[in-house]
Specification:
153 residues; alpha+beta; single chain; Ubiquitin-like (UB roll); 5-stranded mixed β-sheet; 5 helices
């Protein structure tokens, strides 16, 4: 089947078999490997992308579901060769350790800051509760989101 959607701000037309997961379409067909597969069951959040501005788990999203929609991946956050302030904040606060969960955390945090540009620490923790990280703990992640929120004001 032919799919047409916007990916990181650009129009995309791609062939995909029925039942193809968005995760596989992004990684295998389009070469965007920033979106990770952790559990493949919607439990870890490593595959979080934004579809029409809302966080979605790419491992649970059929590719056909993005037909005509706008998809944003971690690769789409940086612009003109510069990291997004949220990406910079994760680096600056040591919110990145092994990096596996980081793209999903950043995408979920980006969605949060779009909805609520001044979240409290509790709101950050609640919003990111579906994203698991085994390396950093969550203090540095929450600190990164707070720092990015300040920088984006």
């Amino acid at each position: 089947m032919t799919l047409r959607f916007r990916l990181n701000g650009r129009a995309v037309t791609v062939e995909a078999p029925p039942g193809r997961r968005l995760l596989d379409l992004l990684r295998e067909d389009l070469g965007l490997t920033g979106t990770k597969e952790g559990c493949g069951e919607g439990e870890c959040g490593a595959c979080t992308v934004l579809v029409d501005g809302k966080p979605r788990l790419a491992c649970l999203t059929a590719a056909i579901q993005v037909e005509g929609k706008d998809v944003l991946t971690i690769e789409g956050l940086a612009s003109s060769g510069r990291l997004h302030p949220l990406q910079e904040a994760f680096i600056g606060t040591a919110g990145v350790q092994c990096g596996f969960c980081t793209p999903g955390l950043i995408m979920a945090a980006y969605a949060l800051l779009q909805e609520n540009p001044r979240p409290t620490r509790d709101e950050i923790r609640e919003y990111l509760a579906g994203n698991l990280c085994r390396c950093t703990g969550y203090a540095q992640v929450a600190e990164a989101v707070e720092l990015a929120a300040e920088r984006l004001r």
